[in-house]
Amino acid sequence: MLGYKSGIAEVMTKITILRDEFEHMHDTNPIEHIGSRLKSPESLMAKVRRKGCPPTLEAIREQIWDIAGVRITCSFVSDIYRIRDLLVSQRDLTVLAERDYIADPKPNGYQSLHLIVQVPVFLSDRVEAVTVEIQIRTIAMDFWASLEHKIYYKYDGAVPARLLTELKEAALAAARLDTTMEQLHDEVRALAAGTGHARHTSPRRPPTSCCRRSRTSWTSPAPNHPNADLTPHRRRRRRPLPTVGAAATVRPGPGDHTRPVARRDAGGRREPCSDPR
Length: 277
Ligand code: GTP
Ligand code: MG
Known about the structure:
By secondary structure, this protein is an alpha+beta fold. It is built from 6 helices and 5 strands; from the N terminus they run αβααβαβββαα. The protein has a domain at about 1-140: Beta Polymerase, domain 2 (2-Layer Sandwich), CATH 3.30.460.10.
């Protein structure tokens, strides 16, 4: 566990440096909040059993990717991709997988961008590559996810259908809020720059896929907020990940949610993902 604790410290330092730099050098800061958590031994062993992972250190290291977790909360969806780009471009971070539940939300409405990265931890006699799960989401997505998490555990997974429907609606509302806030933000910025603005109206794609969550709580759980179905937004072109295949930017891992990242058109906008998720 020491390696994972250090892995968290390394990633937290990277993000804190970015946040500090934005605070001092730029007029806006894309990072609202940073939290972290180390999976408890009980929760880890439960996951090992659930996944049918051999209970050896080597297998656990190879197959369980969220022992160390870092969560970044941003104001706007474009900030999520901005932070993602900044992290991915750091040479000592290796991206093992990217799960974009913003482009392809889970059927219950869950949205976030997940990066599974490996970061080097320098010990006295060796360098350990530690796997860390980084979740990046907006305040609205985080509000929704924390409430959904509470409800899920309150009902021990058997959430009444009415609540599930309402949660889904809340997710859609939260996504709309994210879109509106980003548009307003863009307009205000354009006005301030005296350039006018262009409203972006990319369609949201329908949600899909299945979900699961962990029992472990985060050290600084983000406060309450909401989330949604699909996100448009103007996003910056993302740098390709150092991984496989033409469209795929994800190295397939033991998890079943890892899938190729959506491609971009010439203008840097997302093309619909062929994955049925
Ligand atoms: P876990 O076994 O839950 O870790 O799933 P996974 O390793 O297959 O990966 P996945 O991307 O599905 O989930 C990773 C983490 O994202 C979870 O541990 C949660 O923190 C979060 N998460 C994923 N799905 C949901 C969801 O539907 N609701 C909430 N609240 N959080 C979710
Ligand atoms: Mg997990």
